[in-house]
């Protein structure tokens, strides 16, 4: 029997999360009262646990994953203990890597093997890197020979390759049969694999010849041969291709499924849209973390030292760049002492430069991630961003220059503000294009620490430009 779990909107999901949190809080209170050996409290505690278990049982595995990620570690483990063991594998597939690690740590090997029992080869491959090796071997031993071969094939590819995301549940047919024969064949299945929008047409050697859309099949004349109704121009992928590139192709061509073939054209498996959505989300999360200088995804309720280890590297770099910026200011202490207005105005120049640089670097990182920009186009984009920075610098530099003139009664100071802001915006544009481009050439993620680096450049550069011009023309 297939059990269907009701999908919930974001608001309903938050309501479920709130209810689970209230039940856990009540459970903690009852446990505290249990210290008094009150039988009534013991009964209330048992009733509360039963209510919490029933609530979790009503949730979709993806919703349970959301709830677990939003709970502190102690409460998370309580909810995890009350989750139906037959659904443990499905929930482990949905939670983030950081939270999955905390759940796997408290499960003994037998529990882990039981949780993996209902998973397909491709799903088991997704969890394998986070599981003890012995558990993976034992789970593989319970698979059939075909599934074991599929699992080994998936595990042979890196996580960011198409081959690691292949799904082996698909329907294949021959080209020399009629649509009526195909329909009779499909009726023999209890249910079709998920996201089945097309049927793959292969020959006796397994070579992909085309695809037959289910929509086309349903409206075609029963006597029509498959080779007459199928599409021969197919978007397909090789297992060594980057998963991100495949995800972008899914978005570009509005694909639901697509075949994965080897260099000879033999059908190996398929990609599905749900896997590609996960790739896009993970890539987006990774870029967001890298921009902030975080090395990896972090459990919101992770132990303090785990969070420290994740964050310290770029904080150390930031400290070094901040110290350098302070030394730039220190070199102009005499100028600042003679004209105190410089101390009040120099953060404006640095702040506007940092903002503009982050805008540029975000556009370039996004273009590189989407495949819209090639390294050879960096010069053209730099000239464009330079033009934007000059116009913005002249306009907003004039505004802040006029304000400085009115506040301090010095037209020369206003002109220095105009020149400094324009030059710093030009520096921000240059570094905003250069940093991610250079990162990509070095084989690194273009977003890695970009926000930290651009801020360091515009702060130090802004102080140096503004104080240098002020010293040269005002003092």
**How much beta, percentage-wise?**
5-15%
Radius of gyration: 30 Å
Strand order of the largest sheet: 1-2-3
Shape: globular
Nearest-integer average pLDDT: 87
List low-pLDDT spans.
Answer: 1-6
The largest sheet is:
3 strands, mixed
Give me the count of strands. Answer: 5
**Euclidean distance between termini CA atoms:** 85 Å
The SS-based structural class is: mainly alpha
- What is the helix tally? 21
Following the backbone from N to C, one meets helices and strands in this order, namely HHHHHHHHHHEHEEHHHEEHHHHHHH
How would you summarize what this structure contains?
The protein has 475 residues and is mainly alpha-helical. Helices cover 65% and strands 5% of the residues.
Q: Would you mind describing this structure in some detail?
A:
Strand 1 (172-173), helix 11 and strand 2 (198-202) form a beta-alpha-beta unit. The N and C termini lie far apart (85 Å). The radius of gyration is 30 Å and the shape is globular. It has 475 residues and is mostly helical. It has helices spanning 10-34, 39-57, 61-69, 73-82, 88-94, 97-105, 109-116, 121-127, 133-141, 145-155, 179-186, 214-219, 226-229, 243-253, 273-291, 304-330, 333-338, 341-369, 378-408, 411-441, 450-473, and strands at residues 172-173, 198-202, 208-213, 257-261, 267-272. It is built from 21 helices and five strands. It has a three-stranded mixed beta sheet with strand order 1-2-3. Strands 4-5 form a two-stranded antiparallel ribbon. The model is unreliable at 1-6 (pLDDT under 50).
């Amino acid at each position: 029997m297939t059990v269907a779990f009701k999908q919930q909107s974001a608001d309903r999901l938050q309501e479920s999360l709130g209810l689970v949190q209230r039940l856990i809080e009540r459970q903690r209170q009852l446990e505290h009262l249990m210290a008094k050996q009150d039988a009534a409290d013991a009964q209330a505690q048992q009733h509360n646990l039963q209510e919490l278990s029933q609530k979790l049982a009503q949730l979709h595995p993806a919703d349970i994953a959301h709830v677990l990620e939003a709970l502190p570690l102690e409460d998370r483990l309580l909810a995890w203990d009350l989750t139906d063991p037959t659904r443990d594998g499905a929930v482990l597939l949905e939670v983030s890597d950081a939270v999955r690690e905390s759940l796997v740590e408290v499960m003994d090997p037998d529990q882990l093997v039981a949780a993996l029992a209902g998973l397909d080869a491709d799903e088991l491959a997704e969890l394998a890197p986070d599981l003890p090796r012995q558990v993976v071997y034992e789970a593989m031993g319970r698979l059939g020979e075909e599934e074991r071969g599929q699992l080994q094939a998936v595990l042979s590819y890196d996580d960011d390759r198409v081959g690691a995301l292949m799904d082996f549940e698909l329907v294949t047919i021959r080209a020399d049969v009629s649509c009526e024969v195909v329909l009779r064949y499909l009726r023999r299945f209890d249910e079709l694999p998920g996201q089945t929008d097309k049927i793959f047409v292969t020959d006796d050697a397994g070579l992909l010849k085309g695809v037959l859309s289910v929509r086309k099949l349903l409206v075609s004349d029963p006597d029509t041969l498959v080779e007459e109704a199928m599409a021969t121009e197919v978007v397909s992928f090789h297992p060594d291709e980057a998963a991100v590139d495949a995800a972008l192709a899914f978005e570009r061509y509005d694909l639901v499924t697509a075949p994965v073939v080897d260099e000879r054209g033999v059908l190996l498996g398929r990609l599905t849209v749900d896997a590609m959505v996960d790739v896009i989300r993970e890539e987006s999360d990774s870029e967001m973390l890298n921009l902030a200088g975080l090395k990896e995804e972090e459990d919101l309720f992770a132990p303090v030292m785990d969070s420290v280890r994740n964050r310290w590297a770029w904080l150390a770099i930031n400290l070094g760049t901040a110290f350098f910026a302070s030394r730039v200011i220190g070199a102009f202490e005499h100028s600042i002492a003679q004209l105190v207005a410089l101390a009040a105005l120099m953060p404006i120049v640095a702040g506007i430069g940092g903002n503009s640089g982050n805008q540029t670097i975000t556009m370039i990182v996004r273009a590189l991630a989407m495949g819209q920009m090639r390294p050879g186009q960096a010069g053209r984009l730099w000239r464009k961003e330079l033009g934007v920075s000059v116009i913005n610098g002249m306009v907003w530099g004039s505004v802040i220059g006029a304000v400085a003139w009115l506040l301090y009664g010095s037209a020369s100071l206003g002109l220095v503000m105009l020149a400094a802001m324009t030059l710093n915006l030009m520096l921000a544009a240059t570094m905003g294009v250069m940093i991610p481009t250079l990162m990509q050439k070095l084989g690194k993620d273009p977003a890695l620490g970009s926000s930290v680096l651009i801020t360091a450049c515009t702060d130090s550069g802004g102080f140096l430009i503004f104080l240098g011009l002020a010293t040269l023309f005002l003092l």
